[in-house]
Specification:
With 332 residues, this protein is of the alpha/beta class. It contains 16 helices and 11 strands. The N and C termini lie close together (10 Å).
């Protein structure tokens, strides 16, 4: 098959789209990644139908068996959804797989999701079973559960160079976007040797926390080094992840890092809790758990090893890509 993958090249979606491209290639399929911003520019610079026809020709030149996109990207811009309820790929008669790794039921996204309800060539994949159940109750038949995963080519066990250890080694580390909840967690741990990477942490009003913020980190080359060098990686899922697990958890484990994560129901079905992963049910538990596992490096190592084996066996993007292929065959 030939698969077109669309991305706006944003901080969050771009690594996932490229990981899926890599996975499809590993399965023996051909891929082409396109910048959806170019399509939007064409549409905005031309009369409605003319713009659609130009984009249609570009898509047809690629000749994909189906397209895949992150969230509602495949049915941008807004004029298409609100005026005609069509998107670039449906207009081009190309089957579309939409991946929702946030809340597809919020008021901003639901108009886009509704436009693909039981569409003859569109399928929706959601990361959380709560959203799956909501959409099923609303009559959606073209929706499936698909958890996140990792790319073991990028996230792996490393023998770090001295410079990398100096840069990244710490007792407790966190990678992610600033939020009040996450800030509270890191403030509770600031008496430890902690390092924070991500965005917007300069907003912190706690000077001790701001001092531990080292800016953004390259997800393609550097994050796995940080996960390897950190004794305890803290994970805190966004509110949209009600029962589901974010990609950070899979990436840390693929790097054979030790992770302390917030409890989610999916942990019970995807992992062996306490054997492969350690979780907390309230942030008040975090300091004591950190103290405990900082004192037991061998236990951390064994749990991390078991977690990595599970991830490589069951939770890679190659395995998720195989699921998408099986579903999308029904639309081709």
């Amino acid at each position: 098959m030939k698969i077109l993958l669309a991305t706006r090249k944003t901080y969050i979606e771009m690594p996932i789209i490229y990981d899926f491209a890599d996975a499809f290639e590993d399965l023996g399929h051909k891929t082409e990644v396109v910048d959806i911003n170019e399509y939007n520019k064409i549409f905005e610079e031309n009369e409605f139908i003319k713009g659609l026809e130009i984009i249609k020709r570009k898509i047809r030149d690629i000749s994909p068996d189906f397209a895949i996109c992150y969230g509602s990207i495949g049915i941008f811009p807004k004029q298409l959804i609100f005026n005609k309820k069509i998107g670039y790929f449906s207009y081009s008669d190309v089957p579309l797989a939409s991946l929702y790794y946030d809340n597809p039921c919020n008021e901003l996204l639901i108009p886009y999701v509704e436009s693909t309800k039981n569409h003859r060539i569109n399928h929706i994949f959601v990361w959380d079973k709560v959203y799956l159940n909501i959409l099923n109750k609303e009559g959606y038949k073209n929706v499936s559960y698909l958890p996140l995963a990792t790319n073991p080519k990028r996230y792996k066990k490393l023998k770090l160079e001295e410079d990398d250890l100096k840069k990244y080694e710490c007792e407790i580390g966190f990678v992610g976007t600033y939020s009040g909840h996450r800030h509270k967690i890191m403030s509770m741990l600031k008496h430890h040797d902690i390092k924070i990477y991500g965005i917007n942490w300069e907003r912190s009003k706690d000077e001790d926390v701001r001092k531990r913020f080292y800016g953004e980190i390259d997800n393609l080359t550097e994050t796995t080094k940080f996960y390897n060098a950190t004794k305890i990686n803290i994970n805190s899922t966004i509110p949209e992840g009600i029962t589901s697990i974010n990609t950070r958890l899979f990436d840390v484990l693929a790097s054979e890092g030790f992770i302390l994560t917030d409890y989610k129901d999916d942990l019970n079905t995807l992992f062996d809790i306490k054997e492969e992963i350690i979780s907390y049910t309230s942030i008040e538990q975090i300091p004591k758990l950190c103290e405990l596992f900082l004192k037991h490096p061998e236990q951390r190592r064994l749990i991390a090893q078991k977690g990595r084996r599970r991830v490589l066996r069951e939770h890679t993007y190659k395995q998720r890509a195989a699921v998408i292929i099986d579903v999308m065959k029904n639309y081709i």
